[in-house]
C-alpha cells in the first residue's frame, strides 16, 4: 500500500490528522460526558461509534460526495450550518442538564444500553462538522492522482485518521472515567464540567457557522 501512497504523504497526513484530533471537539466532549455519566465501557463504546461514523464520512468523500461539497458553495454552507446547529443544540442541552449527571450517579441509574450508546456515538461522529470539513477539503489534497486508485488512497488515509482518533479519544474517555469518582463526590464539580463542555460546544458551533469558505 505504501507504493500507492508515498510514505511522506502518509506521514504528512498523519501529522495533519493529529493536529485536528488533539484539539477536543464535539466527539471528545461527548465521549468525556458519557464517561462521567456512565463509566469506562460506555465511553469506549461511544468512541467506537464515533470512529464508525467518521469512517462513513471518509467513504462518502472517497466515492464523490467530497467533490460535490468542494464544488458547491450551497451544499458546503448547508452542511456547515446543519452541523453547527446540531452542535449548538447539544451544547444547550448539556448546559441545561449539567446537574442531572450527579443525580444519576447518586441514584445508581443503570447505564444506557450498548447499542443505543454506539448509535449516539455514531450520530455525533457522522455529523461532526470539524471532521466533515477536514475530509472534504483536506483529505483530497494528500491523494497522488498520478498513482491512480484515488478512492482506495482516500480509504487508506481515512484509516490512518481513524486509528489516531481511536487512540486519542479512548485516552480522553479512560481519563474521564478514571476521574469519575472524584467528580462524583461533588455536584458542583460535575455541574461545572457539564456546563463548560456545553459552552464549548455552543462556541464551536457558532465559530463553525461564521467561518467562511476558503476558495
Structural key phrases:
215 residues; single chain; 10 helices; mainly alpha
Please give a quick description of this structure:
The protein has 215 residues and is mainly α. The chain has helices at 7-22, 26-38, 40-62, 65-71, 73-96, 100-107, 114-126, 129-138, 150-184, 187-210. It has one domain (7-73, 98-186).
Give the percentage of residues in beta strands. under 5%
- The parts where pLDDT drops under 50 for at least 5 residues are none
Structural class: mainly alpha
- The succession of helices and strands, N to C, reads HHHHHHHHHH
Whole-angstrom Rg: 18 Å
Please give the number of β-strands: 0
Span between termini: 31 Å
The number of helical segments is 10
Q: Biggest sheet: strands, sense, closure? A: none
Average pLDDT number: 78
What is the overall shape? globular
Percent helix: over 70%
Number of domains as seen in the coordinates: 1
Explain the overall architecture.
With 215 residues, this protein is mainly alpha-helical. It has ten helices and no strands. Helix 2 runs antiparallel to helix 10 and helix 4 (65-71) crosses helix 5 (73-96). The longest helix has 35 residues, at 150-184. It is globular and about 60 Å long. The two termini are 31 Å apart.
Task: Please write out the topology.
Blueprint lengths: L6 H16 L3 H13 L1 H23 L2 H7 L1 H24 L3 H8 L6 H13 L2 H10 L11 H35 L2 H24 L5
Helix pairs in contact: 1-9, 2-3, 2-9, 2-10, 3-7, 3-8, 3-9, 4-5, 5-10, 6-10
Amino acid at each position: 500500500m505504501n507504493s500507492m501512497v508515498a510514505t511522506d504523504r502518509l506521514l504528512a497526513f498523519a501529522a495533519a490528522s493529529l493536529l485536528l484530533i488533539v484539539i477536543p471537539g464535539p466527539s471528545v466532549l461527548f465521549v468525556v460526558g458519557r464517561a462521567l455519566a456512565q463509566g469506562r465501557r460506555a465511553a469506549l463504546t461511544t468512541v467506537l461509534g464515533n470512529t464508525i461514523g467518521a469512517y462513513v464520512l471518509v467513504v462518502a468523500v472517497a466515492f464523490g460526495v467530497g467533490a460535490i461539497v468542494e464544488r458547491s458553495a450551497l451544499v458546503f454552507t448547508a452542511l456547515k450550518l446543519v452541523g453547527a446547529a446540531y452542535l449548538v443544540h447539544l451544547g444547550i442541552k448539556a448546559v441545561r442538564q449539567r446537574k442531572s449527571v450527579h443525580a444519576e450517579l447518586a441514584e445508581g441509574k443503570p447505564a444506557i444500553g450498548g447499542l443505543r450508546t454506539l448509535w449516539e456515538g455514531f450520530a455525533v461522529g457522522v455529523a461532526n462538522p470539524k471532521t466533515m470539513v477536514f475530509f472534504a477539503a483536506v483529505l483530497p489534497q494528500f491523494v497522488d492522482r498520478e498513482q491512480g486508485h484515488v478512492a482506495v488512497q482516500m480509504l487508506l488515509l481515512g484509516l490512518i485518521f481513524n486509528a489516531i482518533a481511536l487512540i486519542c479519544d479512548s485516552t480522553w474517555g479512560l481519563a474521564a472515567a478514571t476521574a469519575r469518582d472524584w467528580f462524583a463526590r461533588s455536584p458542583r464539580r460535575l455541574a461545572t464540567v457539564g456546563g463548560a463542555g456545553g459552552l464549548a460546544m455552543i462556541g464551536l458551533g457558532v465559530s463553525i457557522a461564521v467561518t467562511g469558505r476558503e476558495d
